Amino acid sequence: MAQESRPVTIVMIEDDAGHARLIEKNIRRAGVNNPIVAFGTGTDALVHLFGADGSGEVSAGRHLLILLDLNLPDMTGVSILEKVKANAHTKRTPVIVLTTTDDEREIQRCYDLGANVYITKPVDYEGFANAIRQLGLFFSVMQVPETA
Amino acid sequence: MPISSRGFARTSLIFILVGMIALVGIVATSVWLVERTQVYFEDVVEARDARQAAVQLRNLLQDAQSGQRGYLLTRDETYLVPYRAALASIPGALIRLEAVLTPHPQATGPLVEFRAQLDAKLAELTHTVELGQTGQFVEAIAIVRTDEGFALMEQMRTLLDAVIAAADALSFEGVVDQRAAWNNLRLVSVVGGLVILGVVGAAALTVIRYTRDLETARVEVETLNADLEGRVAERTTELMRANEEVQRFAYIVTHDLRAPLVNIMGFTSELEAAIEPIGKLIDRHPEDAGDPELEAAKLAAREDLPEAVGFIRSSTRKMDGLINAILKISREGQRQLKAERVDLAETIETALGSVRHQIDEQDGRVEVSVKTPPVFTDKLALEQILGNLLDNAIKYHQPGRPTVLGIEGWQEANGRIVISVADNGRGITPEDHERVFELFRRSGTQNISGEGIGLAHVRIMARNLGGDITLTSTPGEGTRFNVTLAPDLRTIVRNKG
What we know:
- By secondary structure, chain A is of the alpha/beta class.
- Chain A has one domain: Rossmann fold.
- Helices cover 39% and strands 16% of the residues of chain A.
- Chain A contains 5 helices and 5 strands, in the order E-H-E-H-E-H-E-H-E-H.
- Chain A has a 5-stranded parallel sheet.
- In chain A, helix 1 packs across helix 5.
- Chain A is globular, with a radius of gyration of 14 Å.
- The model of chain A has no long low-confidence stretch (mean pLDDT 87).
- Chain B is an alpha+beta fold.
- Chain B folds into 3 domains: 208 residues, Up-down Bundle (Four Helix Bundle (Hemerythrin (Met), subunit A)), CATH 1.20.120.1730; 98 residues; 161 residues, Histidine kinase-like ATPase, C-terminal domain (Heat Shock Protein 90), CATH 3.30.565.
- In chain B, a hairpin with a 5-residue loop joins strand 4 and strand 5.
- In chain B, helix 5 packs antiparallel against helix 6, helix 7 crosses helix 9 and helix 9 packs antiparallel against helix 10.
- The longest helix of chain B has 136 residues.
- Chains A and B meet through helix 1 and helix 5 of A and helix 5 and helix 6 of B.
C-alpha cells in the first residue's frame, strides 16, 4: 500500500479462523505484504481499535484498513462499523465489509453507516480465492489516510 | 325457549284453522239467522195481510148490513149506495181472505162454513132489499126481525175476529222470534269476533316471538361467520408465518453451513496445491528407489492424497450444490412479495413462449382455456410456478408421444383461482404424489438430470401466494397439477401486517 514511511496495517475481524487464514493467504498471493492483525471476536477488535478506555486515542496517527465480517459471535459487524465511523479518530479509516450475507437491506444499511466497500464472499472456493486476490490487488493501489 | 320452524308452522296452521272455523261459524249463523228473519218477516207480513183481509171483509159486511137496515127503515134510496158498494167489494175481499187462509189447513173447515154463512147472509140482504124495492118493506123488516141475518153476522164476525186474533198473535210471535234471532246473531257475532281476535292476537304473538328468535339466530350466525372468517384469516396468516419461519431457518442454516464448507473447499485446494511440490520433490530422488519409506511417500503423494482430495472435492461440491439449492429457495422466501394486477392468460402465454420451441421439437401442442378475472398476486412468483410446471411437463414427456399440454384457469365458488396444468407425460406413481413436492426428492427413472428442487420450490411459492399445489396422475398417461391462488394477495399481506 502506498504509504512508504508508515505501512498500513490491515485489521481483519473474522470469527472463522479458517476463513481468516484463507483470506490472509490469498491477500499475500496478490503481493500484499502489509501486516495483518486478525481478531476472532468483536470485543478484541474493539479493544485494539479504541483502546481499553474506548476513546480511540490509541488509533491516533495509525494507518488502518478494516476487513469486517458481519457475523460475529459476540456482536454484529454492523455495530463495529457504527462505532468506527462514529469515532473521531477512526472515522476516516476505510472499512471493507466482507461477509456471506447478500441481503439487500443489510448492504444498504452498511453503506448508509459509512462502509467503504461491501463484498459478498462467493460460495465456491475458486470464486472466493479470486475475489480476495482481486481485493489484494485493489489494496495495492488504494490510498489510506492517517487516522486523526 | 326458541320455536322450531316446524312448530311455528303447526301453531300458525292451528291458529288459521281456528280463525277460519270461527269466521265460517259467524257467516253460516248470520246467513241462517237472516234466513230465519226473512221467514219471520214473511210470517208477520202474512199475518198483517190476513188481518187486513179479515178486517176489510168484516167492515164490508157491516157496511152492507147497515145500508140494508138504513134503507129498509127509512126507505131512503141513498142508503143503498154504501150497500151496493160494499156488496160489489165483498167477493174480492173474500178471495183475498181465502188466499191468505189457504196455506192453513186448520182454517179450511171454518172457511167452508163461513162461505155458506156469507152466501146465506148475502142472500138475506139481497132478498130484503129486493122486497124493499118492490115496496114490500114490512115483509122485509119481518125477515130482518127474525134475527137470522144478525145471527149469521155474529157467526161470521166470530170467525173473522178469530182470524184477526190469530193474525195478531202470529204478528207478535214473529216480532219476538225476530228479536230473538237478532239477539242470537249479535251473540254469535260477538263470540266469533272475540275468537278471531284471540286467534289473531295469539298468532301475532307467535309471529313476533318467532321473528325475534329468528333475529337472535341470525345475529348468532353472523357472529359465528365473522368469527370463522377471522379464524380462517388467522390460520392462513399463521401458515404463511410458519412457511416464512421455515424459510428463514433454511436461510440461516445454509448460510452457516456455507462458512465451514468454504473452509473445507479452500483448504482442500491448498492441500492439492501442496501435493504438487511434494510430488515433484519425491520424483527428484529416483536413486533412493529401494527405500520403502520413500516408496510409501511416493504412493501417498501420487495416488492416496489425490484420491482423498478428489473425494473431498466431489463431496463438498455435492454439498455445495444442495446448500445452494436450499439457499435459492429460502432466498425466494425472503423476497418481499409484490401484489399487482396480473392477467393470467397473458402470463401463461409468456411462460409458454419460453418453452414453445421445445414443445415444437416434440411435435407437441398446447390447449389454453382461461376464464378468470384479473388476479392480484406476485407476478414473478406466478411466472416461476408456471415456468417450473411447463419445464417439468416437457422434461418428463413420454418418449415417442407428441406432447399435449392443457392449461386451464378458473375461479372456484369460494373465490380461489385455480390454474391447472395437464400433460400426457410419463406420469407419477401414486406413492410419489406427495414425495415429489419434497426437497431433493424425485420420482421415476432418474434418466433426466435435475436437483429435485423444482416442485418443492413451486409448492413454497404457491403457499406464499396464499394457495397450494396438488397433483393427480396416472403413470404412463400423464399428470395434472392444480395450483390454487388467493385471488387477492393484498388482503392476506394486509392481514399479515
